[in-house]
Design goal:
SusD-like_N; signal; globular; SusD_RagB_dom; TPR-like_helical_dom_sf; alpha+beta
C-alpha cells in the first residue's frame, strides 16, 4: 500500500500536476489510517497532493452555478465561464444570469483537512519521516492553501468563522457548543488571510523544478497576497457605495471598514507586489516585439505554455478521457464551427462588443484611449444600438437600420486590422484566421429593396451570384448567428466574436469532453504589475512609487506593440487591466470589489453585439457592421445586479447559528 501511494504520487509529480486524484481512485485514503500514511515520506506527500486538489482555483473546471472541479455532464450549463456573468462575454445560448444562485462556497471540511495536515506534518517531522526543511515547506504550502480557501470565503461572504486548528480536543472537553465559532468581522477576516500569505511565504522556496515544478513558491504566496490585499483595500474603500442594513452590518461582519483600513491594505499590496517585481526573477514574456503581428503571436503563445518566465502559479492537467478526475473541456466547448473536430457542444464562449470596443488602435498619441470599431461615417458610434434587430418585419426596426450611415468595407476583417495585438490574440474577430481557416462571422444581408435578413441563413441572388445571409451555404462553413438562443444547438457565436485566449490553435484537438490539457495560469507577473499600479494610484497616503507604477503600466503596453507612453491615472490602470486580463476571471471580482456591479448592471442592462452584414444595395457587395442589442439579453429583459449580491447568503444558519447576511 505504501509503495503504491509513493509511486502514484511520484508519477503525478513527474507529469507536472499541482495535485493528483488518481491515487485516490486506486486506494481511497479513508481505507488507510493516518498513522500508516505518516510512516513514509510518500504517504505524507500523498496527503499534501490531496490538499492541492482543495485549492479553490477558478479554473477551466469552475462553474459559478455549480462549484469547483466540475467535470460531470450538465448540458449547456457545463460550458459556463465566469466571464459570462460580466460585460466581457456571454454563453451562445444566452441562458446565463448575472450569477445570484449556485455561487456558494463553504469549505470548512477542507479547512479541517488542512488543519489536520499541519498537525500531521509536525508528527512526521518529530518521527523523522520527513526532514525539518520538508516539514517547513509543507507547512508553508498548507498556509497557502488555507489562505486561498479563506480568500474564497471572505470575497463571497465578508467576515466568516476563523478556524486555524483541529478542534477535536475542544469538542471532547465541552461538547458541540465548544467548537461553535462565530463570524469574525470582515476586517479581521481579510487580515487573517493576509497573515496566512505571510506565513506561507516565510517557509516556501524561491523556485521549483523537476518533479516539484507545480508546487507553490514564495512568490506565489506574494502574488496571492498582492491579489488579496488589493481586493481587501477596494472593499474597504468602496463598500459603502452599495449600502446595506441589518445585524451583519451593525456587527461589521460585512463592510464597516474605514479609509485608514483601505490604505493599510493598499500598502500591503504595494509591498508584496514590489518585493515580487524586484526580487522574484520573474519577467514579462517576450516584452519587446518588433511588430504588432509578433506582439499578437507572443501574447497568444503566453497562454499555451505555462513554463515561461511570466507565470508564477499554474495548474496542469492530464487527459481526462484516460485519467479519472483529470482534463477539462475548454477547447471543445469553445471551438468555432468551421474548425470543430466533432465536439458535441462548441462555439459557446462569445465575447461582447463592449470588451472589443475597449481595446485601442495604434494611434499611440500618449492618451491611451479606446478605439471603438468604426461602423459609421459620421463617427458617432454611441448614437445607436439597434433594438429588436431580429424583428425583420418591423417597419420601425427596418427604418432604423436603413438610416444608419454605414462605413462600407471590402471584407470582414478590415475594421479590426489596426487593433491592439491583445485583442487579436484574445478574440477571434470576423474574417480573421484560425488554424489556417478564414472565420466567416456574418449575421445577415441587406437587399436592394431596403429589406434585410438576419439570424437565418436565407439566400438571395444578384447578378447571377447566390449570397447567403450567414456567409456560406452549409452550417459547417460559417461560425456566426445560426440557431441563436436555441439552447443545446446554439453552437455559433451570437455576438459576432469567438474566443482565442487559451485556445490551442494549431494543435491536434480531440472532440472528446475532458480531453483538453492546456494548463490554467492562475497567477502571472502582469497581474502583479496591475495590482501595484492600482494600489499606488488609489491609496490616499502617498504609498508606493508612482514612477515604478507607470513603468509597469507601459511595460504591458510595450509588450502589446505600443510605442507611446501613457500617464498613470486610475482610468488608464483600470482600462489596461481589462484589456490585459480579459477572460482570465478578473472582471467579475473587479466589479465586485470596487462596488461597480450594481452601476454597470442596472435597470435591466442589455449588452451589445456586432452583426456583420453583406450590403447588396450598391453596384458591388460591401460589408457593414450593425451595433445591436445582444439577442440573449433582449429576450430576457436585460440583466440587473442587486446590492445584496455583493455578499452571498451564509448557508445552513438554522444549524450553525451564524448571523445571516443582508437580504438573504
Amino acid at each position: 500500500m505504501k509503495k503504491n501511494i509513493l509511486s502514484i504520487f511520484s508519477l503525478c509529480a513527474l507529469m507536472g500536476l499541482s495535485g493528483c486524484n488518481a491515487f485516490l481512485e486506486l486506494e481511497p485514503l479513508d481505507k488507510v489510517s493516518p498513522d500508516q500514511l505518516l510512516e513514509t515520506e510518500g504517504g505524507v506527500k500523498a496527503l499534501l497532493a490531496n490538499i492541492y486538489t482543495m485549492i479553490p482555483m477558478e479554473d477551466f473546471n469552475y462553474r459559478p452555478n455549480a462549484g469547483f472541479n466540475q467535470r460531470g455532464y450538465d448540458g449547456v450549463n457545463e460550458t459556463t465561464n465566469l466571464a459570462f456573468l460580466t460585460d466581457e462575454a456571454t454563453r451562445s445560448d444566452g441562458g446565463v444570469d448575472i450569477g445570484y444562485e449556485g455561487f456558494n462556497y463553504w469549505p470548512y471540511g477542507d479547512i479541517r483537512q488542512v488543519n489536520i495536515f499541519m498537525q500531521n506534518v509536525e508528527k512526521a517531522k518529530e518521527a523523522g519521516t520527513i526532514s525539518v526543511a520538508d516539514a517547513d515547506r509543507m507547512t508553508g504550502e498548507a498556509h497557502f492553501a488555507r489562505a486561498y480557501m479563506y480568500y474564497g470565503l471572505v470575497k463571497r461572504y465578508g467576515g466568516v468563522p476563523l478556524i486555524d486548528k483541529v478542534q477535536d480536543d475542544d469538542y471532547a472537553d465541552g461538547g458541540p457548543g465548544a467548537v461553535a465559532v462565530p463570524r469574525s468581522t470582515e476586517l479581521d477576516t481579510w487580515k487573517f488571510v493576509l497573515n496566512e500569505c505571510t506565513l506561507a511565504a516565510a517557509t516556501l522556496p524561491d523556485a521549483t523544478s523537476g518533479s516539484d515544478l507545480y508546487r507553490v513558491t514564495k512568490w506565489a504566496a506574494y502574488a496571492l497576497k498582492s491579489r488579496v490585499a488589493l481586493h481587501a483595500a477596494s472593499v474597504a474603500k468602496y463598500w459603502n457605495l452599495a449600502p446595506l442594513a441589518g445585524e451583519a452590518v451593525t456587527q461589521k461582519l460585512v463592510g464597516g471598514m474605514t479609509s485608514a483600513d483601505a490604505d493599510a491594505f493598499y500598502k500591503e499590496c504595494i509591498e508584496a507586489s514590489k518585493s515580487l517585481i524586484e526580487n522574484s526573477g520573474k519577467s514579462l514574456y517576450k516584452p519587446a516585439p518588433a511588430t504588432v503581428k509578433e506582439a499578437a503571436s507572443n501574447f497568444q503563445a503566453l497562454f499555451l505554455n505555462d513554463q515561461n518566465e511570466e507565470v508564477i502559479f499554474s495548474k496542469a492537467y492530464l487527459n481526462g478521457t484516460t485519467n479519472t478526475n483529470q482534463g477539462h473541456s475548454y477547447a471543445q466547448f469553445n471551438i468555432l464551427p468551421q474548425v470543430n473536430p466533432g465536439a458535441l457542444k462548441y462555439g459557446r464562449f462569445n465575447p461582447m462588443l463592449e470588451i472589443v470596443d475597449l481595446f485601442e488602435d495604434y494611434t499611440d498619441d500618449g492618451m491611451g484611449k479606446s478605439a471603438k470599431i468604426v461602423t459609421r461615417t459620421d463617427g458617432n458610434e454611441d448614437a445607436y444600438n439597434i433594438a429588436n434587430f431580429h424583428s425583420m418585419n418591423n417597419a420601425s426596426v427596418v427604418n432604423n437600420l436603413m438610416s444608419v450611415p454605414f462605413v462600407k468595407y471590402n471584407d470582414l476583417y478590415e475594421p479590426f486590422a489596426n487593433k491592439d495585438a491583445r485583442l487579436l490574440a484574445s478574440v477571434v474577430v470576423p474574417g480573421s484566421s484560425y488554424a489556417g481557416t478564414e472565420i466567416i462571422i456574418q449575421g445577415g444581408f441587406i437587399k436592394d429593396n431596403n429589406s434585410y435578413v438576419a439570424y437565418s441563413n436565407e439566400s438571395t441572388q444578384k447578378n447571377g451570384t447566390t449570397y447567403y445571409a450567414l456567409g456560406a451555404e452549409g452550417e459547417t462553413m460559417f461560425s456566426g448567428f445560426n440557431n441563436v438562443n436555441s439552447g443545446e444547438d446554439a453552437n455559433w457565436t451570437a455576438t459576432g466574436f469567438g474566443v482565442r485566449k487559451y485556445m490551442p490553435e494549431g494543435e491536434s484537438m480531440s472532440p472528446d469532453r475532458l480531453s483538453s490539457t492546456t494548463s490554467y495560469i492562475d497567477m502571472r507577473l502582469a497581474e502583479v504589475y496591475l495590482n501595484y499600479a492600482e494600489a499606488v494610484v488609489e491609496n490616499g497616503s502617498g504609498f508606493g512609487d508612482k514612477e515604478l507604477a507607470e513603468n509597469c503600466l507601459n511595460a504591458l503596453r510595450r509588450r502589446a506593440g505600443h510605442t507611446d507612453r501613457i500617464s498613470l491615472t486610475l482610468e488608464s490602470v483600470l482600462k489596461e487591466r481589462r484589456v490585459e486580463m480579459a477572460f482570465e476571471g478578473k472582471r467579475f471580482w473587479d466589479m465586485n470589489r470596487r462596488r461597480e456591479f450594481h452601476t454597470e448592471f442596472s435597470n435591466n442592462r442589455i449588452r451589445k453585439a456586432l452583426v456583420p452584414m453583406l450590403d447588396l444595395r450598391g453596384a458591388e457587395p460591401k460589408y457593414v457592421f450593425a451595433r445591436v442589442n445582444y439577442f440573449g439579453d433582449e429576450t430576457r429583459g436585460g440583466r440587473t445586479f442587486q446590492n445584496i449580491n455583493y455578499y452571498r447568503g451564509i448557508p445552513n444558519i438554522a444549524t450553525n447559528g451564524l448571523v445571516q447576511n443582508p437580504g438573504h
